[in-house]
Structures are given as structure tokens and as C-alpha cells.
Fold this protein.
Amino acid sequence: MPIGIAPTVAWKYFNQHGATIPGRAAARAGTVMVLGSVGHTTLDELAAAVPKDTLLWMQIYLFRDKRNTLNIVRNAERRGFRALVVTVDSPVARLKAKSYEGVLEFDKVEAPNPWMKYLDGKRRDGTLGLRDIWAGPGLRETYCFADWEDLRWLKSQTKLPIVLKGVLSADSARRAAGFGVSGIIVSAHGGRQLDGVPAPLDALPDVVNAVKGTNIEVYMDGGIRTGNDVVKALALGARAVFIGRPAIYGAAVDGEEGVYRVLKILEKELSISMALCGCSSLSEIDRSIVKHETEFHPKL
């Protein structure tokens, strides 16, 4: 199934079992889940809750203190995660509209964050709740101006494949290729970081073209709501897509079964859309079956 589950912090806001819910659903559907590094569910909790052959990737930030990054990497290696997904589109925290304040009350779903062992250069005592992630030393630690040399350092520290998440330009894709990454996720962070950036689907062709001839696999997340959306992304060169909000909605409605049903609905819609486009296999989906709407409008 070319539909995976994207990393997100929000699982426990909508289901008490947190990220184990999408993990089990992904295992049943035979697809990949990416565990977010800022959240309620630990690597050990997720790995213990799913079958051993579940395809799990681990999302990380290049934290200010490299010891925090290494803590995640070593645990991911120990638990059999197959890849590291490095989010690169968040050097600073976005400005939040005041209308969002109080919508999610962190104190009601407080949990320790296991990843940040060091804050302001010192080993921390006790636990760090999610409220602290978005303020004070936790915020400074997560949102920092990492650069390409930090990526080179990470690659020197692990044999796990590295997938960059948050690439929207051909130039960044080419630079990533030069650093030997294994994959790219074309993503706009769910549209929550910078208003006005290109939609991932619009940016996808340029990124795919930029790494043509390499072994880099290109994925996409953002805006996937139907099987038709999946077909469009695959036609424009994506190896697979990832979903965030639709899976969260499923978890809110019916837990593991809800997430599983979302995946299966998308899979069925994908199959129907393929058939109606004359494609009997995923390999037959190509750019010939999609046209941008601007091609149908007369030039002024």
C-alpha cells in the first residue's frame, strides 16, 4: 500500500492510547508508520505494541544539543526502526493565531517527553511535559538553525537510511542528494509553518526531476484526502504518500479500527481511480494521466 502514516504529536489528544493506535493499524494494513519525536508515546511503547515485522520509521529534529538527537537514533536502532525521518522545515516555531489559544489544553494530556535528556547544555532531572516543549528551554532545543553540516554529522553517526521531510524546492533536493540521503518527503508541515508556500503536490514534480537518475525515493504528505489525491501524487513521481489528519480523525472516531478503516478506504478509492484511469498496476501510473488546471484555461 503506497499510503503511510505521517509523524504527528496529536495522537493522545484524540485517543488515550496515543501513537500505539496508528502503529497497530499500520501493521494490519501492511504499511509504514512514522513515530514523531515530540509526543506522548515512546519508542519502546510503540515497538512493544506492534508485531515485530511492523515497518516503523522514526522522525527526529536535529536538536540543538546533539546528545538529544543521538539518544533517539540509538534507541531507534535498538528497537529495529528502519529509517530516520529528519524534519528540516522548522528552524523556528511558527507564529500562532490567538484564536487557537486554549483549543488544546496541554495539562489534560500531560506526559513526560523521553527524548530531551539535555536542556541548556545540562542533563535534566525529572520529566519534561509537552507544555514545556513549546516554551522555554524545550522550545529552544527543538527549533534551532541546523545546517547541512549537521546532516553530514548525523549520517556519520548511523547506518540507518535518512529521509528529509519538508523539502519544497529543486535546489534543496539536489543538495540533499549531494549529502547522500536515501529519501525526501515533499511536505509543507501540514500547512502549519509558513503561509503561502507551494502546495506539496505543486512542488512535487520539480523535486522529482531534481533527483532523477539518483537512488533517492521521493514521497509526499499534505492534502491527501481521497484515492484520487493518491493517484495524482504517484503520477507526478511520488513513491508513496503519507497522511496525518485523516488518520487522526479515524483515531478520534474509533481508535485503531478507525485508523485502519481510513487506510482501507483510501486503498479502495485508489484502486477504483486506477481502474478508471486504465491502470492495472501502480507501475502504470505516470504523468500522462494528470494535467494541471492551468492547462485548460486560456492565457490572458
The longest strand covers residues 55-60. The chain is about 40% helix and 15% strand. The CA atoms of residues 73 and 158 lie 7 Å apart.
